Amino acid sequence: MRKIASIGFFLSCFLAFIPWGQAQQRSQFTHYLFQQIAYNPAYAGAKGYLQSGLSLRSQWMGLEGGPRSAFFNVHSSLRNKRLALGLMGQSDRTGPSKYTQVQAIYTYRIHLENIRISAGVQAGMENYRVDWSQLDLENPVDDAFPMEPSSWWSPMIGVGVMAQGTHWYAGLSCPSLLEQALFYESANALFTRRLRHLYAMAGAEWEVNADWRFLAATLFSSVWAKETASGPASWDLYGSFFYRDLFLAGMSYQTGIPFWKPGMGLGQSGGLFAVFQLENGLRFGLSFDIPFSRLAQPAFGSLEWTMGYEWHVRARRVATPRFFW
């Protein structure tokens, strides 16, 4: 009964903060399948042993000041397999602005007959910094822009839930429950805001033969905002083939807009990715995305590199039942 009550508490906290909305502020990673903890804290310790990962992304290459992102995480379940702890950090740079965050993760998991249900919470701090001196202004003395760099610190807290079966998973999360207004001093007192991000994810696998498996996954992201000018929601789709748990290759597609709206073109981008999972636990991969939007003219694509390490990977494959991701 205490297990059910704990899960119910996290669910209640999560559902209390779910309004419906649109937009996108947080970074996106093509290697989502191997960086799920970036979107849902309930994923921490999902494989039952220590995992670590690093992703580096250069988005919209060829566009001066395009986004550059780095994401690091380490997490593991504890001895009783019900509790898991994790740590993650992220750094983004776009033009004169820089964003950094560090968060700790706690996850509680219950094991049913063929399903594992997890609830996680994450908390930490984030920093926004803008160096206005990097802007190339027509008028070097412009009262609309401060002369000195601006920096803001703010707390972060998020929650998520996830269910895992032998060949499927599904989850809901809100990694940023707190909505923050970020001001800077200028003649016009301009400001920006960080909004609540909502995610829904799901995936499944099918065995093709003794050597090959097909994996499919989807990630829906949206932001709730009071303003009607908020940006669009987005659907990300992934399909890949896994060979003997050693090599994975597939394709991704990001709508970038509500897919039901007519006349919006091909969407945001499409990409190819490949990942090598070595038997000693080391993992590394590469992906390349091609933009379909108007950015296809100044930018020729996005490149993402990822690597990770999983401890006790041999023991897991031999001694314990495998849950999907």
General description of the model:
This protein has 325 residues and is mainly beta. The protein has one domain (2-319): Beta Barrel (Porin), CATH 2.40.160.40. It has helices at residues 2-15, 313-319; strands at residues 51-58, 68-77, 83-94, 97-111, 116-130, 150-164, 168-174, 180-183, 191-194, 196-207, 212-224, 234-243, 247-254, 269-277, 282-291, 302-310. It contains two helices and 16 strands. The protein starts with a helix and ends in a 6-residue tail after the last helix. The chain has a 14-stranded antiparallel β-barrel. Strands 8-9 form a two-stranded antiparallel sheet. Helices cover 6% and strands 50% of the residues.
Strands, helices and their partners?
Elements: H1 2-15, E1 51-58, E2 68-77, E3 83-94, E4 97-111, E5 116-130, E6 150-164, E7 168-174, E8 180-183, E9 191-194, E10 196-207, E11 212-224, E12 234-243, E13 247-254, E14 269-277, E15 282-291, E16 302-310, H2 313-319
CATH architecture label:
Beta Barrel
Structural class: mainly beta
Order of helices and strands: HEEEEEEEEEEEEEEEEH
Judging from the principal axes of the Cα atoms, what is the shape? globular
Number of helices: 2
- Rg is 21 Å
Q: In order across it, which strands form the biggest sheet? A: 1-2-3-4-5-6-7-10-11-12-13-14-15-16
CATH topology: Porin
CATH superfamily: monomeric porin ompg
Number of strands: 16
The overall average pLDDT, rounded, is: 78
- CATH class value: Mainly Beta
Low-confidence stretches: 1-24, 314-323
In this structure, how is the largest beta sheet organized? 14 strands, antiparallel, barrel
Structural domains: how many: 1
Estimate percent helicity: under 10%
The first-to-last residue Cα distance is 27 Å
Per DSSP, what share of the residues sits in E-state strands of 2 or more residues?
over 45%
